[in-house]
Amino acid sequence: MPWRRVEKTRAAAEGKTSKPPAPRTVAIIGGGVAGLACARRLRSLGVKATVFDTGKREPGGRASSRLWCGQVVDHASQFVTCLDPELSEVLASSGAARRFGTDGRFGRLSTEGFSAIDDQLERWVGIQGMAGIVKALAQGLEVHQDVWVPPSNGLQAAGGSWNVVVPRDQSYNFDAAVIAHNGKCAERLTSSTPAKEVHALLRTNFAATLPRNPAPGSGRFTLNQIYSLIFEVPKGVMPESFDAAFVENEATLRWLSSNTGKLQQKAEHEVWTALSSPAFGKQHKAPQEFLEGTAKEAEVVDLMLAAVEKAVALPAGTLGGATGAVRHTKLQLWGAALPISRWASSDAVDFVWSAAHRIGIAGDWLSSVPERASTIEAAWISGVRLADHIAGHSSDDAGLQLGESGGVFVPVNADFGSSGSEAVAWVDPESPKGKGKGRKGKWKGRSNSRGRG
Q1: Which contiguous run of DSSP H or E holds residue 282?
Q2: Which of 2, 116, 357, 377 is the most buried (most CB within 10 A)?
């Protein structure tokens, strides 16, 4: 008997099985912070990572910026809150970020006016907006930009590996795959793959709040939807006492900031960002692709400008209307804005990995720390820790255990939208055991006063 066969037989007799080698190539679908963080760490560990991103100009996802009216504008994520020392070091050494909120010009708007927040938390903004931070994170990575991976057949299992198929009949083969985006596209992308347990966690709801008394087994990843309005006004119209604030005194809004002040831009006019409440976004929801130039756009802009006036105690009509000071506006429905539920896995990790199918999930909703959920830092940590697992422990499942003894969907409470619910365990509704059953968790969502940071 050949020597190798003898050794194989001996190992089998002793109950030993050889672990498959760690993936050498990984496809990362989604070029937000989670995907880029995963790719960066994989590269440092000697694993080739390829990022596929739909952004037309650059990666970033919700951490993006645009040039508008001659200024850099953060129209989605506004800052990075940092408790993780590694992320702090990355930001400090990037040359693309600076500390934010230490000068008394960041705080809250209440019925008593503006008050600064002095909670000693470390916050950062991009020198050239959030996109500048993302650009630094993406430096040196292989990113396929403006590439659409079709949800219907873009990700295909191929005998222990994965094919990523993009338009124009291009196909790429990888040892493993990572889903680093969310929403209906991620749900559909994995629906026809054999990784059913991964697809189950990507099933998505869109709502302003979660049910207060959820039905057993109904726990699910949920995103809210909010409006982002940017507007240009001459200097001196808006208050000069603050650059950015959470809004507590107007139900329509949750955030208001001057991009001109926050990003220290010199200009004769100011460009501000206002983010709506989830309830307002739900009430006035409209198809984003058909919003521009419609009566709904005009209505939402008028309502949000009126809310800004109330929030900063300006006389009605100062900003909007025929005689208002606002010169230009741009409205966007942020359709998949913020997670209001997070997956608290039974093994308390910040990612998901299926060893059998070699596919994982990274994202800001996979946080083992309640106070960090739904933040840029959570996305970063999720991507980094998934990469570490892929490179060193790819033969072990992580964050994946489902059923009554498995993980729990836990509500997230944050400044940009409170979930208002109890935790609910995930139970497969299609299984005989799961039908009509579930386990309510003992956790309650904790307050997260850091907003979308």
Answers
A1: helix 278-283
A2: 377
CA 135 – CA 33 distance, rounded (Å): 10
End-to-end Cα distance, the chain: 63
> Residue 107 pairs with which residues in a beta bridge?
116, 245
Length of the chain: 453
Per the prediction, the chain carries an average pLDDT of: 87
The more confidently predicted of residues 218 and 366 is 366
Task: List residues bridging with 106 in a β-sheet.
Answer: 244
H/E run at residue 430: none
Contact status, residue 90 vs residue 84, Cβ threshold 8 Å: no
Same domain as 358, residue 391 = yes
Dihedral sign, Cα of residue 303, residue 309, residue 311, residue 315: negative
Would you say 101 and 400 are in contact if contact means Cβ atoms under 8 Å apart?
A: no
Instruction: Say whether pTM exceeds 0.70.
Output: yes
- How many whole angstroms separate alpha carbon 375 and alpha carbon 82? 9
Residue 150 gets the label, from left (phi > 0), alpha (psi -120 to 50) or beta, of beta
The DSSP-derived string for 115-139 is: EE-----EEEEEBTBHHHHHHHHHT
- Hey, which bits of 309-436 come out as E strands? 328-334, 341-344, 352-354, 359-361, 408-411, 413-414, 417-418, 422-425
> What does each C-alpha distance from 61 to 125, 133, 157, 429 come to in angstroms?
16, 12, 26, 31
Whether residue 281 is found in the same domain as residue 321: yes
CA angle (167, 224, 39) in 5-degree steps: 45
Q: What is the pLDDT of residue 62?
A: 87
Domain end marker among 273, 307, 334: 334
What kind and span of H or E run contains 190? helix 184-191
CATH number at 112 reads 3.90.660.10
Q: What is the pLDDT of residues 293-331, one digit of tens each?
A: 999 999 999 999 999 999 999 999 999 988 899 999 999
